[in-house]
Amino acid sequence: MWDLPRLWRMSPADALVWAGTAATSMLVSTEAGLLAGVILSLLSLAGRTQRPRATLLARIGNSAFYEDATEFEGLVPEPGVRVFRFGGPLYYANKDFFLRSLYSLTGLDAGCVAARRKERGSEWEVGEGGPAQGKDLAPVSSRAALAPAAAGFHTVVIDCAPLLFLDAAGVTTLQDLRRDYGALGISLLLACCSPTVRDALSRGGFLGEGPGDVAEEEQLFLSVHDAVQTARARHRELEATDAHL
Q: Which CATH number fits domain 51-243: 3.30.1490.100, 3.30.750.24, 3.40.228.10, 3.40.50.360?
């Protein structure tokens, strides 16, 4: 009982589970207390995974390491690249929170903008932070470069290191996100995927060899830094190609 204040300071959720279990054991029975503890633990776990911490990462000086830009001073944002970290699994219960967090932090609702562009056909818009409109008359390569310029970035890298697992809804969310970003000329890359996550992506159809599929080596990277450097190199190549058109 005396450990409860210390436990509350460390984790209010764990303290509530402990208190609920102890109270049920004393008021009802030991068996009921154990059952209450299991149920409360499962509810606590579900609550934590539904709204995990989401943040944008920035580079630590000239190193190959990236950390939370709001937690550390002096970090250097990568020009044209947004590095997003989602501190939990991606599954059916938190997929909407995942998208809301990503769109809020990057300042661009890719799903909404891509849908509007598809509906209007000849016009496109980009987010509240940088509104822009234009006629859909340019060549594909030049047209694709317009949206990233207005949005402020050309690539989104997702740090999947905290991503413990993906279910079918999570894989579909990433597929839809890649499609919406692609419609705006923005690339989606994944870094630090565990074998479990890679397997889920492969089985879910995110990777493959068919027409329109993206090969694993073009989409998945061992580190965030590798993904960022590849993104910047690809963008330079695209700019050089457009300059010769």
A: 3.30.750.24
